[in-house]
Amino acid sequence: MQVLGRGVAHWWMASLILLVAFGGAFAQNKVEGSPLQIITDSGCYEFDVELALTPAERQVGLMNRQHLDDRAGMLFRFDQVRMVTMWMRNTLIPLDMIFVRSDGVIAHIHQNARPLDESIISSREPVAYVLEINGGKAAELGVKPGHRIAHPLIPQ
Predict the structure, then answer these.
(1) What digits encode the pLDDT tens for the residues 73-109?
(2) DSSP 67
(3) Nearest to 135 by CA among 67, 41, 50
């Protein structure tokens, strides 16, 4: 009986570990497909974004990516409204960096940041969020300062 008891305990523990691991994977996938809208004078454009919420996630960002889908991106949330600086270290694809105030209004857009460039890119004013999308996409959609970003993380 004792052997059977240990076997059941091991099976139960292994099942619990798998459940936690798969639960984490499901939670991660849920974050990666987070819906976001860019609202312009000419329309509303839907994106699926990954979220960078922690200092570690913000530090890595979109580094080492070979490709970013046409309507994909990454939304960085900062713990407080502040001046934000970014760079393209280890970033292999050109990006538009859209700097967003705490109310969702676009403050500044740095278009077509060059891959691997370590020059500092400034928000130019205190912001709470940065949205990174494919380089040239903001111009293609007519996105300008004063337009809005809508996402569940951004109070409207």
Answers:
(1) 999 999 999 999 999 999 999 999 999 999 999 999 9
(2) -
(3) 67
